[in-house]
Amino acid sequence: MAEAHQAVGFRPSLTSDGAEVELSAPVLQEIYLSGLRSWKRHLSRFWVRRATAWFPSRIQLPELLGSPRLTGEPSTSPTGNIYSPPTPLSAPLPFSSHPQTQFLESRPLMPWCSLLSPFTSVARLLLSYHGWLLEPHGAMSSPTKTWLALVRIFSGRKTMLFSYQRSLPRQPVPSVQDTVRKYLESVRPILSDEDFDWTSVLAQEFLRLQASLLQWYLQLKSWWASNYVSDWWEEFVYLRSRHSLMVNSNYYMMDFLYVTPTPVQAARAGNAVHALLLYRHRLNRQEILPTLLMGMRPLCSAQYEKIFNTTRIPGIQKGEIPLASSLTEVRHVAVFHRGRFFRVGTHSQSGLLSPRALEQQFQRILDDPSPACPQEEHLAALTAAPRDVWAQVRSSLKVQAEDALEAVEGAAFFVSLDSEPAGLTREDPAASLDAYARALLAGRGHDRWFDKSFTLIVFSNGKLGLSVEHSWADCPISGHMWEFTLATECFQLGYSADGHCKGHPDPSLPQPQRLYWHLPEKIHLSISLALRGAKTLSGNIDCHVFPFSHFGKSFIKRCHLSSDSFVQMALQLAHFRDRGQFCLTYESTMTRLFLEGRTETVRSCTREACNFVRAMEDKEKTRRALFRLAVEKHQSLLKAAMSGQGVDRHLFALYIVSQFLHLRSPFLDQVHSEQWQLATSQIPVQQIHLFDVHNYPDYVSSGGGFGPADDHGYGVSYIFMGDDTITFHISSKKSSTKTDSHRLGQHIEDALLDVASLFQEGQRLKPRCGGLQEEDLGHRCGSLPCHTRGSRAPTKSTNF
């Protein structure tokens, strides 16, 4: 998602006022510290994982002790997730469900459990095999069949969220010669002959003089630390960045596109907050099943630990993310409304408050007539300021308003009750969706606490959204939580006929606690400057959202093609028509096949893609064959990146080592001076079983978006909504004379139709002007906004 902007900007984060920041730790010391941090993380997870996740025997300690089983059967679906209704929180947890208690109860079993270490080693060896990923679709070699049988034997039946962590392999360090070769191949289509020859000379000089030394340090780190790149990625790409988080780092997630379950703002907030805390409860008990590829290959679950209770703390040179685990039961959320801050308790002595009780608390805030104190209204704009500015002001704020600051930063998450409506409208569908996206991405610059792991935004007409801080995890993690939230609050919790949460208010609950900030005058100017900068940044962002409803993944599958590759090639065609040239293209993919893996870049602008685009523009007869070649090349790059053989993270880590060694490399300098004028990402749909897309096609998330990675570039994300719609989120900067989000949107629609016309079934599709049309709205939901109260909204999904 938004990491492309940070990846481009990390190099300046190593400088201050034009001078190199002194990285005082020798590289060996830094590698040692990386390993030490890894071991500390492992020890901090000891109690939970030791007590609940003995892989690969899969005989859970609660079962041995006669406790109720907490997990379900693993799935054979590609994502491997199973939904089961969350356990109600109104009753206290049984004593044996607490992780530390389970560990104490299991001490007589420790000699038996120690025998599991060899099995873990065997499992790690099995999971290090990636031949299955690189094989053509539908073809399975004999080694892969053997591997598949062994994985099934060692995987067992009962899994929990962190069950596989000890068995995941470490991310390998690719061959530096292969990385340089792949890099040169990726830039060949966009460089002139002269520039490419010069780049090749720099690359050969790098391989001859510096590569082996830098590679040796990376190999050493890969043996000692959990992951050779992820901790440096978090530090240098995110925490050392001095840019504003707003637009540059955060991203947003949208509500249902055509449906608003209730127009009552407090009710929607009550159900959504309750659903989010149910998710946290399942996370606490590890009842969220690990994501499995092919129904058996687990992905790393480490990023789930920071979904809740997490705040990114600013620093003068670099920030930090305190190790506050989501498994801690923080019992309040921080709420912002009309410039005022509140602390809202989420639990009573008997457990989590009901949705109706939470609605009551939010309604009390909405009805509170008290005004904001001077400067308090715009205080949160500081979290959108440059990080060093915010760090300096926060040190004063921590002294003058420690309790209020702790209540916000220590909350489970942040809730913003907006005073304006948002979402799709019949009167101006295109403009309303664009405004909705801009409100989620930036708001008014002072109504989000951008440091929090995520802000839940509830608009006055009941529309929802998320603004997510990027450093703690990547989009699939927050997306998994968001899918659960939307499905649970709408399908399981539901609303009464009058639009309120089900149940009854609780008059005995104390009023929400108003937070008061004692703001010294010396920071008033900082707040004003931060607000001015936030409004400038927000006003410069050009967002465009449109659902493409001519066809979706079902049509692409009938063409026997990868859905993602199909869209990526269409994006290459659209961008070429928009700008008249090819450019470096950033597509994010995951490396969670490895322990603590995060992301890798797929360089989608390949020689094969360029040949296809030229053939399309010249109407060549070979364009369909060239399209298939481009898709096959994209698939090979995607699979290589997922299996740890990508280009950019390796080059990034080599560059960091060179900085620690104060060893200048013209080749690495050039690599990290490149600009990504097209940054793209697919929003994965991971829990399709939560939504009945055939009977209720409008009840699917419409995805989300992020800011552009370059001042003269585009940010494009897309999500496959059901089988027949693809929703695109496009961003650019209004200050650029080279970009226009709406113009690119029209090019994307035309390109998709033109590519589809290469196939017989797609020749019946006709282009039309303007993206989202009024007839779409009438077809999807009759009149807008659509509020579902009763018969239209499924009160119980058949998938539950």
Automatic annotation (TrEMBL):
GO MF annotations in UniProt: carnitine O-palmitoyltransferase activity; palmitoyl-(protein) hydrolase activity
Reaction it catalyzes: S-hexadecanoyl-L-cysteinyl-[protein] + H2O = L-cysteinyl-[protein] + hexadecanoate + H(+)
Subcellular location: Cell projection, Axon; Cell projection, Dendrite; Endoplasmic reticulum membrane
Bilayer disposition of the protein: Multi-pass membrane protein
Active-site residues annotated for this sequence: H470
Start and end residues of each Choline/carnitine acyltransferase domain: 172-749
Stored Pfam families: Carn_acyltransf, CPT_N
Protein name per the record: Palmitoyl thioesterase CPT1C
Source species of the chain: Canis lupus dingo (dingo)
Biological classification of the source: Eukaryota, Metazoa, Chordata, Craniata, Vertebrata
